[in-house]
C-alpha cells in the first residue's frame, strides 16, 4: 500500500512538471495555441533578403506583430510575406510596408508607416504599398564597377 501511494505521488508530480514545461515552452516561444489576438495581412516585395519567419513588425518603433510566413509568388516572382498584426490595430489601406535593418548585426524587420486613409485593410487583405530591402552588396558592386 505504501509503495503504490508513493508511486502515485511521483506520477502526479511528473504530470504537473510536464504541463508546466509545456506551458513555459509555448509562452517563451511566443506561440499561440488557438490563434491569439492577431489577424493576417499579406504584402508583396521584390526583395526581402535577410528577412526571416518570426521577424518583428513595427509601427512607430513599437512591435505590433511578426512575420508569420514567407513564400514566392510564381506568377510575378515576388516575395509574399504574411504578417500577423494585433487585432486591436486597424491598418489603413495606404499603409506602407518597408523591409528595414536593425542594429549592426543586420537583423531585418518590417516597418509599417501609417497612412491617412479612412478605409482599413480587412483580415486576409493585402498591403499594396511596399518598399523592398536595400541590398548593400548591389550598391557596393555598382560603386566598385562604375555603375553609379
Report on the architecture of this protein.
With 148 residues, this protein is of the alpha/beta class. It folds into 2 domains: 31 residues; 96 residues, Beta Barrel (Elongation Factor Tu (Ef-tu), domain 3). It has an 8-stranded mixed sheet with strand order 7-1-4-3-2-6-5-8, with no helix packed on it. A hairpin with a 4-residue loop joins strand 5 and strand 6. 16% of the residues are buried.
In short:
The chain is α/β, with parallel strands linked by helices. The protein has helices spanning 2-28, 136-144, and strands at residues 38-45, 56-59, 62-73, 78-86, 96-102, 107-113, 126-127, 129-131.
**Separation, N- and C-terminal Cα atoms:** 86 Å
Low-confidence runs (pLDDT<50, min 5 residues)?
Answer: none
Largest sheet, in brief, is:
8 strands, mixed
The CATH class name of the largest domain reads: Mainly Beta
Report the principal-axis shape: elongated
- The assigned structural class equals alpha/beta
Amino acid at each position: 500500500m505504501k509503495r503504490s501511494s508513493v508511486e502515485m505521488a511521483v506520477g502526479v508530480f511528473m504530470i504537473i512538471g510536464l504541463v508546466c514545461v509545456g506551458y513555459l515552452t509555448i509562452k517563451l516561444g511566443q506561440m499561440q495555441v488557438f490563434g491569439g489576438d492577431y489577424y493576417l495581412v499579406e504584402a508583396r516585395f521584390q526583395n526581402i533578403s535577410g528577412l526571416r519567419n518570426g521577424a518583428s513588425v513595427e509601427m512607430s518603433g513599437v512591435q505590433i506583430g511578426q512575420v508569420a510566413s514567407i513564400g514566392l509568388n510564381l506568377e510575378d516572382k515576388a516575395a509574399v510575406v504574411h504578417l500577423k498584426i494585433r487585432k486591436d490595430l486597424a491598418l489603413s489601406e495606404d499603409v506602407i510596408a518597408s523591409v528595414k535593418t536593425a542594429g549592426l548585426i543586420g537583423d531585418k524587420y518590417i516597418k509599417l508607416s501609417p497612412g491617412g486613409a479612412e478605409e482599413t485593410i480587412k483580415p486576409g487583405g493585402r498591403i499594396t504599398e511596399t518598399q523592398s530591402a536595400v541590398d548593400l552588396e548591389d550598391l557596393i558592386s555598382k560603386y566598385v564597377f562604375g555603375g553609379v
